[in-house]
Write a structure and sequence with these properties.
Elements (H helix, E strand, L loop, with lengths): L15 E2 L25 E2 L1 H14 L5 E8 L5 E8 L7 E5 L2 E5 L11 E6 L4 E6 L15
Parallel strand pairs: 2-7, 3-6
Antiparallel strand pairs: 1-8, 3-4, 5-6, 7-8
Length: 146
């Protein structure tokens, strides 16, 4: 499932680990073809895309997308949120990775420019990670970034 906590870093050889799984209720879906929506610059690795597919199969849902967002919070001012969402809201940017849609809200797009989502499954840790070159620093507890 999703990894515990966040370990933000500016180093592209390290990753930011975070996560919690949140299922949202349907509301205010944007109607229309997702290809008409703007795109974003977040990348999803093949390993992460496969894990998302596996989790969606376990949920028995094919209407969910992976949403990544940046929200105010934590010691350094910003935290990541990563969850499944059935909604596509006005202003969302969408990118498809071989059948896995990743959605970013318009306010989070600049904070996530060039970010990469991966999935680690080792004896030491298991979870989704984010490598974000836009993060300029983090707090000592590792749960937030700026």
């Amino acid at each position: 499932m999703f990894g515990p906590g966040v370990t933000p870093t500016k180093d592209s050889n390290q990753h930011e680990q975070y996560g919690r799984k949140i299922m949202t209720a349907a509301a205010n879906d944007v109607k229309g073809d997702p290809t008409e929506l703007p795109s974003h610059d977040v990348k999803l690795s093949d390993v992460a895309a496969e894990k998302v597919r596996s989790l969606l199969e376990q949920e028995g849902r094919d209407d969910l997308r992976l949403r990544i967002a940046v929200q105010p919070g934590g010691c350094s001012g910003l935290i990541y949120q990563l969850y499944f969402d059935e909604r596509v809201l006005d202003g969302d940017a969408v990118r498809d990775f071989d059948g896995v849609e990743v959605i970013v809200d318009k306010m989070s797009v600049p904070y996530l420019a060039g970010a990469s989502i991966d999935f680690e499954d080792t004896i030491a840790k298991q979870g989704f990670t984010i490598d974000n070159p836009s993060a300029s620093g983090s707090c000592a507890c590792g749960d937030s970034f700026h």
